[in-house]
Structure to design on (391 residues):
């Protein structure tokens, strides 16, 4: 099986065999890239981050515990890098944060609603970038969870291990993230 | 639009695959009777479908190469080890060759002392073994690292390894005289001896 082969290759990498890492990269590259893209919203930057994640994984391979899932360990490196990058970028304006002195009002109500969608079918590419745009509006902590949950369909427990937060928190964030996106995507 | 938070909570639990059968029944029966919740549930499922179906985002085709090019150089030792792993036959041959040649050369180098069969009335002068007049050797005579001078009689072969048969020899040799004085000649001789021993071939 491919999975077993990857486990073997990872063992070789741990022993110092650099060439064996090539298979590991090509096996996980799509997932790692997609997770980064979901969190950062820019292909160029996402590719940069994903490469960085693999390089760090290679350098720190000795700290990977073979009894645990490699993907969990790898995704943790990638999400941590992406979270760091998000922090360094200009501060997030949380759209659902309430504005002082305006009870019950948030930035949504201040943005003019000119998002009228054409009646014709939108191409899937356009839909995709629209969805990504909406995801980017979510606070970072929801974005990382949505990336992990809906790209590799990871279990709640795995997500909690990757992000090092309790399972309960993962659930709440998934629910809120899904609810927020429902409101934004209902007319797509 | 939607009924209460509890039902919505159940919808999320259902979508997470994190719901008990009992609660699922509760959700189902509510959905049958409440159109607003049906709509809400449909929208949630659609949202999930939209963000899940969207995974054909791919990195550039040479992503792996780019990563590999940026890795720190690996230690030499491991690249040699990998070479051995990839070429097991050549490795075995190389190891065999190294062991063989080293053992042969040690044998050759250790063998610099004069050696000759004892108890045959032979006389030794410096590094020359002399078969004195009147002495008859019934067997083969093998002398290593020395010259040989035959004044008596040898009924078998005379074998000289790394030495010379002196011209002054006036004696009689019934068999052959073999001179071996190079590593490979010596090796060939050893192998032939071995083969004779094993297969018991006539000379």
């Amino acid at each position: 099986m491919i999975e077993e082969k990857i486990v073997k290759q990872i063992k070789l990498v741990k022993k110092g065999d650099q060439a064996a890492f090539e298979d590991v990269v090509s096996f996980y590259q799509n997932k790692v890239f997609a997770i980064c893209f979901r969190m950062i919203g820019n292909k160029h930057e996402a590719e940069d981050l994903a490469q960085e994640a693999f390089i760090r994984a290679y350098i720190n391979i000795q700290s990977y515990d073979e009894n645990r899932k490699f993907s969990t360990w790898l995704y943790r490196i990638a999400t941590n890098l992406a979270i760091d990058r998000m922090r360094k970028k200009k501060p997030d304006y949380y759209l659902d944060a309430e504005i002082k002195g305006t009870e019950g009002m948030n930035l949504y109500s201040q943005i003019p609603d000119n998002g009228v969608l054409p009646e014709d079918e939108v191409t899937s590419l356009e839909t995709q970038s629209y969805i990504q745009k909406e995801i980017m509006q979510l606070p970072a902590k929801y974005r990382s969870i949505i990336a992990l949950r809906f790209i590799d369909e990871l279990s709640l427990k795995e997500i909690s291990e990757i992000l090092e937060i309790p399972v309960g928190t993962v659930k709440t964030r998934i629910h809120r993230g899904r609810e927020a996106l429902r409101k934004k995507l209902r007319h797509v | 639009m939607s009924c209460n938070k509890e039902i919505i909570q159940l919808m999320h639990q259902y979508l997470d695959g994190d719901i008990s059968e009992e609660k699922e029944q509760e959700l189902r029966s509510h959905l049958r009777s409440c159109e607003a919740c049906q709509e809400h549930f449909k929208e949630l499922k659609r949202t999930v479908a939209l963000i899940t179906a969207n995974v054909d985002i791919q990195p550039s085709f040479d992503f792996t190469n780019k990563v590999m090019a940026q890795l720190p150089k690996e230690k030499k030792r491991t690249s040699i080890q990998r070479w051995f792993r990839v070429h097991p036959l050549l490795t075995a041959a190389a190891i065999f060759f190294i062991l063989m040649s080293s053992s042969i050369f040690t044998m050759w180098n250790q063998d610099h002392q004069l050696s000759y069969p004892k108890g045959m009335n032979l006389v030794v002068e410096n590094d020359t073994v002399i078969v004195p007049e009147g002495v008859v050797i019934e067997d083969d005579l093998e002398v290593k690292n020395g010259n040989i001078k035959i004044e008596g009689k040898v009924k078998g072969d005379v074998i000289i390894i790394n030495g010379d048969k002196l011209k002054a020899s006036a004696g009689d040799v019934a068999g052959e005289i073999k001179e071996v004085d190079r590593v490979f000649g010596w090796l060939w001789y050893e192998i032939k001896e071995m083969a004779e021993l094993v297969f018991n071939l006539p000379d």
Q: What stands out?
A: Chain A has a mean pLDDT of 82. Residues 2-88 of chain A form a domain with the Rna Polymerase Sigma Factor; Chain: A fold (CATH 1.10.1740.10). Chain A touches chain B at residues 15-19, 21-22, 25-26, 29-30, 33-34, 37, 43, 46-47, 50-51, 54-55, 58-59, 127-128, 131-132, 135, 146, 150-151, 153, 156, 171, 174-175, 178-179, 181-182, 185-186, 188 (CB under 8 Å). Residues 101 and 107 of chain A are 13 Å apart (CA to CA).
